[in-house]
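Message: I would love a firmer grasp of how sequence relates to backbone shape in proteins. Thank you; the sequence and its tokens follow:
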Amino acid sequence: MTEEKEEEKKFYTAKYDRVFKTIFCNEDDPTLLKELLERILKQKIESIEFLRSELPVVSTDDKSKTVDLLAKVDGKYLHIELNCSYKDYLHTRNFIYFTNIYSRKTVRGKKYDFKTKFIHIDFTYGLSKKIEDVTHYYVMSNNGKKYIHNFEIIEYNMDKITDYWYNLDMEKVKEYKHLIMLDLEKDDLDKISNGDDFVEAYEDKVTDLNNQETFRSFMSYEEDQELIQNTEKAMAYEDGISQGIGQEKLEIAKNMLKEKLDIATISRMTGLDADTLEKLSK
């Protein structure tokens, strides 16, 4: 491979859930995940127990649901979702996943478990830069009284946090280095590590993955499938818009016919042909 082609190779960061899970969801060596969670939760972590990430299917209408990371961390249930782009349905989908976990794990024999903490963490790219770096959500009343005490959702605005690196806001970089690194390429990882063993260990892992042809082939396929799905969604959306516009024209034409406007005028104003308008008038 020529040097020019080598430079054109895409560097897959942990913004992609496949990369994130390969690096951080290693049951044989959870060291990196432990360090990441300690920096996020700002507390020492003694134990991590990985749990089954595929949620149970309880109905024939249900589809298989696989979460990015589900673990029991020092007795707390922790659910992490990596969202490489923001969609309107995102919070609803993740909330359904999280409450599914909460409802299954809260009942203990013949009583409810009020003490065990349940934490859902979203690493979300594509949020508005006007939203805070991190948002904490709870189930509570309008005056701040919690309805459920052991349930918390934390969402990180990953684009805004990553921009602190490019904007040279070094105070924020120091605070969020463990999150910023997730979407940096090799050169920037070299710079941001600055003797940080955790960042350097992550850099070694993600660089090694990018050098594995089998992994790159998989990622290229996954990326291609995502492009196909996004294209199909866009086409369906545009088709829906087109149908909506067509239906709106028909409704306008019907109202014009009720007002006794002549067909030639209605055709000129709506773009509908005379045959269609004749059928509408019957």
In short: The chain is about 50% helix and 15% strand. Strands lie at 48-50, 54-55, 65-66, 69-73, 76-83, 107-108, 111-112, 118-124, 134-137, 151-157. The longest helix spans residues 213-258.
